[in-house]
Amino acid sequence: MITAVDTNILIDVFAADKTFGEQSAKLLKQCIQEGVVCACEIVWTETATVFPNRAAFNHAIETLGIEFSPMQSDAAIIAATAWRQYRDKGGKRERVVADFLIGAHGITQCDRLLTRDRGFYRHYFSALAILDPSVQI
To answer: What is d(CA 84, CA 99) in angstroms, rounded to the nearest whole number?
Structure first.
């Protein structure tokens, strides 16, 4: 089982978020036990911004065993198609293209996505299996 992890989950865990930290950590641990957990370059970059330096980030990621999984070209095209659909339906710029890249990476290169979703991924990537700790609180 390959699980893509979204930035919000990693930040929940690393920052010990009071609302979602415990449940996010529980589901992340479950995913690690069930197979590979990976992050695309978007998640890697966004998560690294909360650490004071590269060494601290690398240590945290390595401790959890999260693997770097660069996006393949097919995923980028799927993200572009979903972004276009979003904009054509009147979508505002609150949703940055990064979210579409994360979803496309998950659906093309992984079996599921661990994220606090709020319906976005389910809508634009309906075939993607979602694990959402916020619905389990």
So the answer is: 13
CATH number of domain containing 65: 3.40.50.1010
User: Cα separation of 85 and 45, whole Å?
Assistant: 26
Residue span of the structural domain in which 68 resides: 2-136
Tell me the CA end-to-end span of the chain in Å, nearest whole number: 24
- pLDDT digits over 92-124, tens only? 766 578 898 999 999 999 999 999 977 889 888
pTM: predicted TM-score of the whole model, two decimal places: 0.89
Based on its alpha-carbon atoms, the radius of gyration of the chain, rounded to whole angstroms, reads: 14
β-pairing, 129-131 vs 36-39, is unpaired
C-alpha distance from residue 46 to each of 5, 27, 42, 135 (Å): 12, 20, 6, 23
